[in-house]
Every structure is written in C-alpha cells, then in structure tokens.
Write a structure and sequence with these properties.
The protein has helices at 4-18, 38-42, 51-66, 83-90, 94-118, 140-148, 166-177, 211-216, 224-233, 247-252, and strands at 31-36, 70-75, 123-127, 136-137, 152-156, 181-186, 192-193, 205-206, 208-210, 237-241, 259-262. The protein is an alpha/beta fold. The chain has one domain (27-262): Carbamate kinase. The termini are far apart.
Length: 267
C-alpha cells in the first residue's frame, strides 16, 4: 500500500505532466469549488454524518480529480451545530454561536479529509481559524499552489468571522482561488424551483437563472450576501443533486444538469 507521501508525489508528477497536455475530452470547468451543506451529510439521520453519504461525496471528488479538475471544497456544519437556530434556543450570543458553528465545519472537514485519504487522494484542510495541530492556516497563495499540485483543498472555519455563512465562505474562497464555478450540492433536489418541491409537487424547476432573478425572487439557493458576491465577481453557480450518480463528472464533461445561475441566461 502506498504511503501518503508516495501518493502525493505521484499526483504532483501527473499534475506536472498534464500541464502541457490537452485532456482527452476538454472539461467545461477546470477548477471548481464544491459546496456541501452539513445537513446533506446526515442522510436520513437526524444528526452527525452518515458514512455512506460522505463516502459518496468523496467518490465524486475522486472522479473529478481523475479527470484533471482542480477541486476545492467548503463543508457546512449544520449537521452538528447551527449558529442562528441554536443561539436562540440556548440563549447564546450570536457571535459565540457562530464560532461554535465554525468549529463544526472543521470537524466535518477533517472527516472528509480522512475519507479522501483512504481513497488515495492527496488533500489538505485549511482553516480560517488558527488550529495548527489539525489544519493549515488559510493562505490564498498556498491554497492555489496546493490545487496546482493536484491536491484537493478543503476550506474550514468559515470566513473566520461571525455573521457570515458557509455560502458566503464559498463565494469568497471561489473568487480568491480563481474557480470557474461554484457547485452547490443539494440532497435530493436536482436544481432550483419556484417552490420547495418536497412540499409542493407542482413546483417548477428553473434550468437557468440570472443573479438578479435569484435575488428579486428571493430563491433559496444561497444567502443574499453570497449571491451578491458571485454577481460582483461574475462567478457562476450550478445547483445539482449530488445523489445523482457521477453528477460532478457529467457537469465537468459539459452535460446540462441542475440549474445554472450566471450573469445572463441563454436566448
């Protein structure tokens, strides 16, 4: 069995060899940021992480990396602690509750890291909150270099500040690393609808939307701060169901899946 160092050296060699080569099938996106909510990791459980779900997420990342795509990830912490909801229930200060939520994202990130390592994928967790025993500090240029070396990078600890969601973290980090798109992974929902399809069977799915349409109609894709940041940086968002087999790979290879959100829609 290969050691982690041997795995990383192999990936770095392949990444260097591929720099001057065109992929057999051109990718629609060469660098992506995958956003996974903490709630999605629960599966049908009421709390924590369902092993089958995080293994499925890891398999999708492995396949995307094998296609030559640079993959960064932001994982939410709602399966462990939700700052806004729990601060009210527990009588906590909102800022303190948000910090607890950030720590929950670190826990999820470390678990995803170990799952990826078990599948022989080189990976780094970078935290916006200093905890050098378990994660690297977030430094933009270092994160970019990890991606260039073929490593998966998991951004933990939110933005490092309270009052900002992991949606906003995704938009910020994606812009900082020069991602081509944010892939918003949903659990059992294959895109954006005008109503919640879980409760409204007549709900209509959107194939494409502009940022302004999302903001004006208050569609529950990301929080408005995150959508506004994507609008300002012209960063596309693609909402899809990660339970669909090989969904990420199909997106990378140009298949139309989910709902695309960008500056304009097709005529």
């Amino acid at each position: 069995m290969m050691t982690q160092l041997e795995i990383e050296e192999t990936f770095e060699t392949l990444a260097t060899m591929n720099e001057d080569l065109e992929p057999a099938q051109p990718l629609r996106y060469k660098r992506v940021l995958l956003k996974i909510s903490g709630e999605a990791l629960m599966g049908d459980q009421g709390f924590g992480i369902k092993p089958e779900v995080i293994s499925l997420v890891a398999d999708e990342i492995v396949e995307a990396a094998a296609l030559g795509c640079s993959v960064a990830v932001v994982v939410g912490g709602g399966n462990i602690f939700r700052g806004v909801q729990n601060s009210t229930k527990l009588g906590m200060d909102r800022a303190a509750a948000d910090y607890v939520g950030m720590l929950a994202t670190v826990m999820n990130s470390l678990i995803l890291q170990e799952t990826l390592k078990s599948k022989n994928i080189p990976v780094r967790v970078m935290s916006a909150i200093g905890m050098d025993r378990v994660a690297e500090p977030y430094i933009r240029l270092r994160a970019v270099r990890h991606l260039e070396k073929g490593r998966v990078v998991i951004f933990a600890g939110g933005t490092g500040n309270p009052f900002f969601s992991t949606d906003t973290t995704s938009a910020l980090r994606a812009a900082e690393i020069g991602a081509d798109v944010i892939l918003m992974a949903k659990n059992g929902v294959d895109g954006v609808y005008n109503k919640d399809p879980k409760f409204h069977p007549e709900a209509v799915k959107f194939d494409e939307l502009t940022y302004d349409e999302v903001l004006i109609q208050n569609l529950k894709v990301m929080d408005q701060t995150a959508v506004t940041l994507c609008k300002e940086t012209k960063l596309p968002i693609l909402v899809f169901d990660f339970n669909q087999p090989r969904a990420i790979s199909q997106i990378l290879l140009g298949e139309k899946i989910g709902t695309y959100i960008g500056p304009t829609v097709s005529a």
